[in-house]
Amino acid sequence: VASRGLGDVYKRQDREGPGVSSDKDLAEIMDAIYFAAHQRDGWQDCLDRISVLSGGQSAQLLMLDKENHQRMGCYQSPRSLAESRNHGGQALTLCDVRHDAGDALLVLTVQRPAEQGGFGGAEKELIEGLMPHIARALRQEEAARLIDDRQMAVYRQKQGAMLLLDGQRDVVFVLSLIH
């Protein structure tokens, strides 16, 4: 995917089956990925868009610890729960894509009813091409949460301050807002 670029995958996806049909769709899915951490139900909306984009019915994103494979987090598209209740034991086709994200393993699973057929190469390439962006957005979410937590700790101590963190997320500068 990297050598051809996501745009080429999306154009081929449009010719070969369901999915993105324009640069506008590509921009919308990228926005959904990068804004997911900053909006209520953002990851659920993002996964819903990814499932529609790839011709699926629902999607789930797991974050696993690489050392012990313990679940660190999980998001599901809203349709995952509704569809599983409505269709009970229906056979499903899965597209399971894994991505190494440093200390975590990301697993994105998109599913659809088996009667709709398997996921093709273009659909899988499309999902694989989104994984580095999802990993980056999750890192940004973690950093934002850490900054928020540290800011809250400072305010709780009634020391209102602005914090500057280095690459290791250590406080390197504090500007007191109270005189």
What is the element layout, followed by pairings?
Layout: H1 6-16, H2 23-35, H3 42-53, E1 58-65, E2 71-76, H4 78-87, E3 92-101, E4 104-113, H5 121-156, E5 161-165, E6 171-176
Antiparallel strand pairs: 1-2, 1-4, 3-4, 5-6
Helix pairs in contact: 1-5, 2-3, 2-5
* Separation of the first and last Cα atoms: 54 Å
Q: Order of strands in the sheet with the most strands?
A: 2-1-4-3
Rounded average pLDDT = 77
DSSP helix fraction: 40-55%
Q: Which oligomerization state do the chains in this entry correspond to?
A: single chain
Provide the low-confidence segments as ranges. Answer: 9-20
Give the SSE string. HHHEEHEEHEE
Beta-sheet strand percentage? 25-35%
Give the count of helical stretches.
5
Shape: elongated
The tally of beta strands, per DSSP, is: 6
C-alpha Rg (nearest Å): 19 Å
Structural class: alpha+beta
- Describe the sheet with the most strands: 4 strands, antiparallel
Describe the structure.
The model is unreliable at 9-20 (pLDDT under 50). The N and C termini lie far apart (54 Å). The strands form 2 sheets. The protein has a 4-stranded antiparallel beta sheet with strand order 2-1-4-3. 46% of the residues lie in helices and 25% in strands. Helix 2 runs parallel beside helix 5. The longest helix has 36 residues, at 121-156. It has helices at residues 6-16, 23-35, 42-53, 78-87, 121-156; strands at 58-65, 71-76, 92-101, 104-113, 161-165, 171-176. With 179 residues, it is α+β, with helices and mostly antiparallel strands.
